[in-house]
Design goal:
Elements: H1 5-10, E1 18-21, E2 25-29, E3 39-43, H2 55-63, H3 65-75, E4 81-85, E5 101-106, H4 126-139
Antiparallel strand pairs: 1-2, 2-3, 3-5, 4-5
Length: 141
């Protein structure tokens, strides 16, 4: 894509701090570094979000995640955890519309990063949960 910042990074038109590259993915440090080692994994093929992936590309891209995550863990043994995030579409906080997976190392509960879902147990009845599950099952191909 012509004006995609991640395509430009992949094509070396914009510098980056590359940590991994192969024929399918390019992984580099996020410029914002939410925590030390915050890495973005992007497919070399331009897809805007998870909804544009073909099954083969998804399998190849997501298969690289454990390899890169393990490398981050080895590089920073003081790391106590890792968040894997993938935001899709603007409402879900996607800001660059080239699919990317965030690998965010966690060092302590005091990191400047938080995800809190809250407890919504019981929000939906058994019947509603069954209807929701069935609606999704009917669409899985």
């Amino acid at each position: 894509m012509e004006n995609c910042i991640f395509c430009k990074i992949i094509n070396q038109e914009i510098p980056s701090y590359r940590v991994y590259e192969d024929e399918k993915v390019y992984a580099f440090l996020d410029i914002s570094q939410v925590t030390k080692g915050h890495t973005l994994v992007v497919p070399k093929e331009h897809v805007a979000d998870i909804f544009e992936y073909e099954e083969d590309l998804a399998a190849k891209v997501f298969a690289r995640i454990p390899k890169i995550a393990k490398a981050i863990e080895k590089a920073f043994p003081e790391m106590e955890g890792l968040n894997i995030m993938n935001n899709n579409k603007e409402l879900a906080y996607q800001s660059v519309f080239h699919s990317h997976i965030h690998l965010i190392p966690r060092y302590s509960k005091k990191d400047d990063f938080s995800i809190h879902f809250g407890d919504h147990t019981g929000k939906y009845s058994t019947e509603e949960m069954t209807a929701i599950a069935n609606a999704i099952k009917e669409q899985v191909k």
